[in-house]
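Example (one chain per record):
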Amino acid sequence: MYYFRMHAFNMNTYEMAAAEALVKRTLRFILAPLVALAVLGIADTAIGQDVVKIGVIAEFSGPFADYGQQIVGGMKTYLKQHGDVFGGKKIELIVKDTTGPAPDIAKRHAQELVTRDSVDILAGFGLTPNALAVAPVSAEARKPMVIMNAATSVITTRSPYIVRVSHTLPQDTQPMAQWAAKNGIKRVFTLVSDFGPGVDAETSFVKAFKAAGGEIVDSVRTPLANPDFAPFLQRIKDSKPEAVFVFLPPGSQTIAFIKGYEERGLKQVGIRIIATGDLTDDGVLQAMGERTIGIINSFHYSAAHDSPENKALIKAYVETNGTQLRPNFMPLAGYDGMAAIAEALKKTGGSVEPETFVAALKGMKLMSPRGPITIDAETRDIVQTVYIRRVAKVDGLLYNIEFDKYPDVKDPGKQN
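Predicted structure:
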């Protein structure tokens, strides 16, 4: 335009008018797409405001790959059953793989999800180390964080925005100790995996069992990665306890332990196994075989739980995820976690403002496929029934059959 005005003195009036018209047309040609893009940007922002982004951080590869896949499978099952719009907001899942117990990777994913992907909620977390690494990100960024498995008691204390919908190891363990002492088991050896949940399980069992008059013969903690159970099993056998209490992360380790228990002759000399339900997890129980029959364990969910909600979950999980595997406690937690998020969004009218959203979760009551659950308003941790189960064969398949229960169990790790 500056060039045009400098040379206008050499043009007649007609030429000047024509030139001005040309410039105006040119500017309209250039500016029109820019204006359209700006309008589209505003529209995209408005659309974006109708979406709730959930950043799912979990283990999708490596030795714990099933954890993440099952958690997301449970979330998808809930969305398949109930739709994906709650409180006027559409749910979008953004999935990140930690590759295993990798706190640095988990924290980096959380930071990227918050700063780059602008997620509204963090969720998932199969393993405690990953959940603990992300907790400061939740606190600093003021992002609600829904724990869908990681079971160390302390996790919910690390950010005011953390809510847990799964379980804690003290919660599942204390009833087992009380039941064992009540049913004539007096001398126990404890074996747990050496990370947060295992330490919690050992501590809770020892405290509750001793309080009930029991004796702890000895205790060992096995490596989280690739443990060799042979020397530990021999040590148990030599100690001659009436029973061994076991907590191990479900999967290859639990299969190896059960195999070694029988091969090393512990079963033959009458040493019983009592455990949390991780040992006889529904996902690997069939692979463990008949040597598991009769094992007593305590847990908050069994695929054999007799309720219409559980039957519907099992059917929908298979249909949604294209698998014949029965859901275990991982899909259950993903399912219930998604249910809790959905109900909170309904309460808030779609708002994910952190204080408002977490307040909607506090005190929430849901009818889960496992039975009634509540989010404790003070601790933001789950309150639920813990069942005593026995492994049995039903119609040719192995199941954890519930035969006793402890209702409304809070996390003992948070009780004075």
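Caption: The mean pLDDT is 89.
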